[in-house]
Each structure stands twice: as C-alpha cells, then as structure tokens.
Amino acid sequence: MTPEQISVNLYTLRERLKTPAEFSTAIKRIAEIGFKTVQLSGVANDMMSEAEFVRVCSDHGITITATHEPSEKLLQDPQWSIDRLGKLGVTQTAYPYPQNVDFSNEAAVAKWLARLEEVNGILRAAGITLSYHNHHIEFVKVGGKTVMERIFTETTLAGEPDTYWVQMGGGSPLEWVKRFADAGRLPLLHLKDVRIAPNRDTQFAELGAGVIDFAPIIAAAEAGGCQSFIIEQDSTYGRDEFESVAESFRYLKENFT
C-alpha cells in the first residue's frame, strides 16, 4: 500500500459537506491530514457541477478515486452515471445499497441480480468498473445461499467489501477479501473497524481501535491488486469526524506503507 492509495469515503464527513463552502473547507482539511484521494459519496450530486467538484479537489492536490452512485438511478438510467463519471474523470464506482429490493422474495432477488449484471456490462463497455458495496443484509439466505454468495457467483461485478459489515453479517472479512482478490475483482476496499462498547453494543471504530485484524486483510488485498484502501466510519459518536479519519489514516500509514 502506498500513501497515495489511502483514501477516505466522504460519506464519513457528510454532516460537514452541506454547502460548497463546507465542501471546500473539508477537502482542505483532508489534504492537511495527508490524503491524496477521496471517494465521492454522501455529498448531494447537485450541490456543485462535476467540474466544480474536480476543481475544488484539484486545488488541494486531491483526486477522486471512485464514487458511489445512487442505487435506483444507476439501475434505471446507467447512462446518467456514465455521463457523470466521465465529467468527474473517474472509472471506478460502486453500487452502494440494495434499496427497495425485497430479500424475502427469491424472484425479486433474481431479477435484481440480473439487472445488476446487465448494468455492469453497460458500464464495462464504457470503461467503468462497477463494484458492489455490501452491508450486513447481504448475508441473509435467499434460495439456499447468502445474497453475498449469489452476487459473487451470479454476477461479474467487482467487490468493494466493507470489513465492518461483513463481520456484522457473520462473514469473514478476510475470506471475502481473498475471494474477490483471487478472482481479480477487488479494485476497492472499505476499511472499517468494530469496537465493543461498554454497554456491549457494537460500534464503528477508527482503524486499529477495534477488534478486526487488518494485517492479513490488507496483505490479501495488496496481493490481489487492490487500487484504493478506503477509510469509512458511518458514525463517530460525537467525536470530530476529521479527528477520526486522521487517526485511521495514521494507522494505515504507520503500519502498512
């Protein structure tokens, strides 16, 4: 892993990205931490033009490594995402969440998987790699297999495994990183730790502050050619978001670069 491969998903900072001025301030602070790339997510697409997103990032030495596209919009109108990504100069994106997909209905899941693969082919023809970003819900069984397993075997989408959510679903983050990596389908990886709180709840945690062993996960991802190691933390529980991502950045830089 090189320092340039360490990215942050802007979804982590979403409450600090409500206006163009806030976006500019946030990118400046991200650059000061040491990041060179970001994943554009959690920011209103119409807040600024694509050219403005690129300009603000470029002004602070930041490039956009990937995006998350709106789930339903991507499936309904993939050309919209192709056009947007072209304006951003980005060739990596991910389907972020199975919005309005009924996982209790096997026919609905099969139809959804078929459409995901169809859209994957459309984006691939345009030079764009589509990855799948999981949560814990993909570990429910539908038709005798977990949805995660069916995504892997019934589509050719790349993966953007989320270490926290794989673990919360009862899966092995290392196993899923290895599977996508061994298949040459791991361009992006979401690194997120799991902390056990004093009240016994599980919480999102800064990297190195939780229970996940990241060394073998990162080694497997590197062996599989992972391009972007993306820090994400859905909630910082009142802690300043920039402090949290800075802690995770330091953890990766000090231990894996």
How many extended strands?
12
Strands of the widest sheet, in order across it, are 8-5-4-3-2-1-12-9
Pairing-aware structural class of the strands and helices?
Answer: alpha/beta
Low-confidence stretches: none
* Total of helices: 10
- Reading the helices and strands in chain order gives EHEHEHHEHEEEHEHHEEEHEH
CA gyration radius, whole angstroms = 17 Å
Largest sheet: 8 strands, parallel
Shape: globular
Q: Please, what is the oligomeric state?
A: single chain
Helix content: 40-55%
Strand content: 15-25%
Describe the protein.
It is globular, with a radius of gyration of 17 Å. The strands form 3 sheets. The chain has an 8-stranded parallel sheet with strand order 8-5-4-3-2-1-12-9, covered by helices on one side. It has a two-stranded antiparallel sheet with strand order 6-7. Strand 4, helix 5 (106-125) and strand 5 (129-133) form a beta-alpha-beta unit. The protein has helices at residues 20-33, 50-59, 71-76, 78-88, 106-125, 147-154, 163-168, 173-182, 214-223, 241-256, and strands at residues 6-9, 37-40, 63-68, 92-95, 129-133, 141-142, 145-146, 158-160, 188-191, 193-196, 202-205, 228-231. It is of the alpha/beta class and 257 residues long. It contains 10 helices and 12 strands. It starts with 5 loop residues before the first strand and ends with a helix. Helix 2 (50-59) packs parallel to helix 4 (78-88), helix 5 crosses helix 6 (147-154) and helix 8 (173-182) packs parallel to helix 9 (214-223).
